[in-house]
Specification:
elongated; 7 helices; alpha+beta
Length: 332
């Protein structure tokens, strides 16, 4: 027994130290901490059922073993209202609590909902490529590849899209994973409550470089953030359309690169590039659904219409000649 106790005391620090590496259980900021609380609460509620089951399994095996003559022997026992009450009542209560939390927290933690703060949010446009992350700061007209920098205790409002296939933007310790899709815009609001260096990643399989599609998310003091912005503005690199086309090419582990200026409306133009294609396809589907004729059918229809008009004109001409002949015969 003493050996088991010592082993238990050794195992507990191991699990506690592991929480440091498990981002969702070592969360920072209002969103991450609230989501971490929900995970722990859900686990605790489920343990209300799981733990008694394990305890009862061992207790019943020991209590009602064949060699224990003191245990009550009831071979015809088959029902108990008390047992039924516990078996059905406790799970129902747990489901009610979980349903309430799901309803309330889904609304409270809506990723599109701006976070309450006395500070104005930092605007960041996120573009996922194969297989890197580009972060654009429209208010400062700067950009950075594979590194996200923002001040502590200040909300960050993200707009996300993809220059390629669908990806999933996720900073585990800050919470709320969200997808980035070509031709579409998603939104996310996060905030860090301390100076820290977080790990950001792509959670959606997107090809050969998926496993290395990571970035550093660094929360700094406001003063250090302003210094970083100044450093970016002094960078010799400029994010032109040509430079962006190079970034779009499949690349793994692209180095962190600062850009002192960004071509106007890069994010919106990128979405429009895919939306035009989707709109053309949608119009084509709508025409097919409504039974619109192909181009050669329209030409055939126009020719038929012209032939019909010519036929009507000839009929009118013959009718006029017949009327004239009849009138001449009556005069004679």
């Amino acid at each position: 027994m003493n050996v088991l106790k010592k082993a238990g005391w050794l195992i507990i620090p191991f699990f506690l130290s592991s929480c440091e590496k498990m981002g969702v259980l070592n969360s920072h900021g209002p969103v991450g901490q609230e989501e971490s609380f929900l995970i722990k609460l859900s686990l605790a509620l489920m343990l209300i059922v799981v733990l008694p089951v394990f305890v009862l399994v061992f207790w019943i095996v020991i209590r009602y073993r064949a060699s224990n003559k003191k245990a009550t022997y009831k071979p015809k026992w088959g029902h108990s209202n008390i047992v039924e009450g516990f078996v059905w009542g406790i799970p129902i209560l747990i489901i009610i609590v979980l349903a309430y939390l799901t309803w309330v927290k889904t609304i409270e933690l809506d990723p599109y909902k701006p976070l309450e703060s006395e500070h104005e949010a930092i605007q960041v446009e996120v573009i996922s490529t194969d297989w890197n992350w580009l972060f654009i700061y429209p208010d400062y007209n700067i950009a950075v590849m594979n590194e996200l920098v923002f001040p502590e205790n200040r909300p960050v409002s993200f707009r996300l899209t993809s220059a390629s296939v669908m990806t999933s933007f996720f900073i585990p310790q800050l919470g709320s994973q969200i997808y980035a899709m070509a031709g579409m815009q998603t939104k996310l609001n996060l905030m860090a409550n301390q100076v820290y260096e977080y790990e950001g990643q792509n959670q959606e399989y997107s090809g050969n470089g998926y496993a290395k599609m990571r970035f550093k998310a660094i929360s700094t003091t406001q003063e250090d953030f302003e210094k970083w912005v100044e450093k970016a503005k002094n960078s010799p690199n400029k994010l032109t359309e040509e430079a962006f086309e190079e970034l779009r090419k499949p690349t793994v582990d692209y180095p962190v690169t600062l850009y002192s200026s960004v071509v106007p409306n890069l994010f919106d133009n990128l979405m429009g590039e895919f939306m035009d294609w989707m709109n053309d396809s949608e119009m084509h589907r709508m025409h097919q659904k409504k039974g619109a004729m192909p181009e050669h059918n329209h030409q055939h229809q126009d020719e038929s219409h012209e032939n019909h008009e010519h036929h009507e004109h000839m009929m009118e001409h013959h009718s006029h000649e017949s009327t004239t002949d009849k009138h001449n015969m009556e005069e004679k």
